[in-house]
Amino acid sequence: FRMIRLLSKNSIYIPQLQKVRHLVTDPKYGFLKQLGLTTENPGFFDGRWGGSGKVIESVSPATGKVIAKVRTSTSEEANNAITESRKAWIQWALLPAPKRGEILRQIGMELRNNIEPLGRLVSLEMGKILPEAIGEIQEFIDVCDYAVGLSRMLGGSIIHSERKSHIILEQWNPIGVVGVISAFNFPVAVYGWNAAIAMVCGDTVVWKGAPTTPLTSVATTKIIAQVLERNGLPGSVASLVTGGYDVGDTIVNDTRVPLISFTGSTEVGKNVALKVQQRFGKSLLELGGNNAMIVTPDGNLDMAVQTAVFSSVGTTGQRCTSTRRLILHSKIKDEFLGKLKAGYKSILGRIGDPLDDNVLYGPLHNQQAVDKYNQAIESALQNGGKIEFGGKQINRAGFYVEPTIISGLSPKAEIVQKETFAPIVYIFEVDSLTDAIALNNDVSQGLSSALFSTKLEDISLWAGPLGSDCGIVNVNIGTSGAEIGGAFGGEKATGGGRECGSDSWKNYMRRSTITINHGNEITLAQGLKFE
User: Fold this and answer.
1) Which of 195, 222, 483, 498 is the most exposed place for a label (fewest CB within 10 A)?
2) What is the pLDDT of residue 306?
3) Spatial CA neighbour of 191 closest among 157, 169, 224
4) What span, in angstroms and rounded, lies between the C-alpha atoms of 171 and 263?
């Protein structure tokens, strides 16, 4: 019950969070106390907890019942959080990068100490199965480790000058306050990608988590706050605000927040980008995906089927990288589809509470997701689609639907062209890899893609300039399950953002080109004379 004690530290004021007391008496939910989630709480800044906005409900997707009622932040409180975060930035930015890396190392250790209870909270509140939820916390831990190494590798350049006694340097400096607006489907990991890299670069963070996963946001912030306080640093280095669009708009429109990292739908992300651009800010966008997996006659069929099952139904199809379209060569289509149905059938006996060990497939996140699933099925049927598997809501408490396979639709069908955040995959048949690549690219989104083939010429075409137009181009692995070392993000309507690995740290910093004259004469560039 460490988590409840964490939430009750005497330096923190916590307003009302109801109903949790009814869960923590059940041994199954003892992890809530470990995470410090008592009957109190939800905005956090400068070592204080507060909130005077409207009350929202956290609902368990597995049961449809209210877990807790959380009082949100107001726009004014979000504005105050930005003010405090800006103050903390002055202190945080002046710490040497390796010192900031040491703080990130400690945060990673606290996450390790709480990986199981925090993972269980993600399962309870978001609805993904426990192994996936634990993996999400591990992802944040991995990014903290990555940030520790990065803290001693943040570099610039030395450039030879054309002028005598001159030297040109490039230095990367922290950008200031970073606003992070994350989605429900990865309520810890996406924040972790941004926060760990932004913080090690010298930025402070104001986080608005999804309104439907407020407990996870609070618990995660508690872990980070404990480390900051222990090191004599203000909690506003990593601030949290809760709430809806009004709170999000406050962050998006504030000129004191030079970078907004937004994860969510393409529609909302477009509005965020326009608002940020109007004030000459920067936006880092991770938006919708409509990801395809291509299987050729030369691919390993058993590997491809196993991969397709996880990529399509893992997290109940609620990953931005979930496989939405399966593009199958005509020579293997029937065999592949038969094996895929068998794989889906094996899932049916392992549907249930995501906290249970034997469960492989949990609920959708909320009733809205169920409604969109039903609407997609109806649209597909009206446009000539044939249900090969599933297609129905499951009659039990919570938000459960069957994993679904649909064939017979045109690739141009409206429902195929849009992203439905649900476990629905569409089947398409082609006669060549060239046709398959054309289908892969023929959607507005460009996040993730996968090819199963052992032919070198296929792989070369797929990964080359005339191949996949996505940001993630995989071979003999699925569309989901990215590692933290590579930059994550996509092209086209996916937003063009890149987070986490590679050189994505540059998004969180500003480049300064510095020319130093260490001689005794003024010399102009390009040989210009002005005497």
Assistant:
1) 483
2) 97
3) 224
4) 29
Mean pLDDT of the chain, nearest integer:
92
Q: Cβ(201)–Cβ(62) under 8 Å?
A: no
Measured CA distances, 463 to 450, 458, 483, 504 (Å): 10, 9, 18, 21
How far is residue 24's CA from residue 313's CA, in Å, rounded to a whole number?
31
Structure tokens at 367: 């009733």
Give every residue of the chain whose pLDDT is below 70, as ranges.
1-28, 38-48
Q: Which amino acid is at 440?
A: N
CB atoms within 10 A of CB 246: 14
Distance of CA 151 to the CA centre of its chain: 22
Structure tokens at 105: 């190392």
- Give me 363's structure tokens: 């609920």
Count the neighbouring beta carbons within 10 Å of the beta carbon of residue 378.
Answer: 13
| Whole-angstrom distance, CA of residue 340 vs CA of residue 54 | 46
C-alpha distances in Å from residue 350, one per residue of 32, 82, 258, 305, 307: 25, 45, 46, 18, 18
Element spanning 407, H or E = strand 404-407
Q: According to the model, what pLDDT value does residue 47 have? A: 54
- Cα dist from 169 to 158, 166, 172, 228, 320, whole Å: 5, 10, 10, 33, 39
Residue whose C-alpha is closest to residue 294's, from 286, 284, 304: 304
Distances (CA, A) of 398 to 27, 169, 354: 21, 58, 11
Pairwise CA distance, residues 43 & 52, whole Å: 9
pLDDT tens track for 388-443: 999 999 999 999 999 999 999 999 999 999 999 999 999 999 999 999 999 999 99
Output the pLDDT for position 32: 74
State the residue for tokens 């005077």.
52
Tokens representing residue 348 in the block: 């049916």
Q: What is the pTM of this model?
A: 0.93
Residues in the chain: 531
Map residue 376 onto helix, strand or coil: helix
Nearest to 275 by CA among 288, 293, 262, 294: 262
How remote is the C-alpha of 39 from its chain's centroid?
28
Using a 10 angstrom Cβ sphere, with 0-12 exposed, 13-18 middle and 19 or more buried, the burial of residue 119 is buried
Check residue 23 and give its pLDDT. 57
pLDDT of residue 71: 86
The CA distance from 257 to 251, in Å, is 7
Residues 6+ positions from 63 with CB-CB distance below 8 Å: 397, 398
Residue with structure tokens 């999000």? 248
What was the pLDDT predicted at 10? 27
Q: CA 10, CA 255: separation in Å to the nearest integer? A: 33
Phi then psi for residue 393, to 5 deg, are -75, 140
